[in-house]
Design goal:
Elements (H helix, E strand, L loop, with lengths): L1 E4 L12 H15 L8 E4 L11 E3 L6 E4 L8 H13 L12 H5 L1 E5 L7
Parallel strand pairs: 1-2
Antiparallel strand pairs: 1-3, 3-4, 4-5
Helix pairs in contact: 1-2
């Protein structure tokens, strides 16, 4: 799953937020890469990382979850799609640092371990 905070970058009186532009940019980059069926970003309200907009989270069953911020909707969508692809292709969500796109190296806010089977 790819979650995009659409609250990020809200400006008083402005129409579209930076997060909404990021959602559209990721969707367009995924389509251009032929990944529209596999990579469907989901808009969510607030990832609570307001000081580092635009923010996305990527997660999958059995994999580490990552939160990335400081993403530029105008310039980083292709890099984000590339990073998400590498994450998706990994067994556990751990992509070696050198194999991550630069935005994922510099913008990581948090990573959390996979959820266990029960509570």
């Amino acid at each position: 799953m790819v979650y995009v905070c659409v609250t990020c970058g809200k400006e008083d009186g402005a129409g579209e937020t930076a997060g909404q532009r990021m959602l559209a940019a990721i969707s367009a980059a995924a389509a251009k890469a032929g990944l529209s069926d596999r990579l469907v970003p989901t808009a969510i309200e607030c990832l609570s990382v307001c000081k580092r907009p635009c923010t996305i989270a990527i997660a999958a069953p059995g994999k580490w979850t990552y939160v990335y911020g400081d993403i530029d909707p105008a310039n980083d969508a292709i890099s984000v799609v590339e990073g998400i692809g590498r994450y998706a292709d990994s067994a556990d969500g751990l992509v070696p640092w050198r194999e991550r796109p630069e935005r994922f190296r510099k913008g990581v806010i948090a990573r959390t371990p996979p959820l266990p089977g029960g509570f």
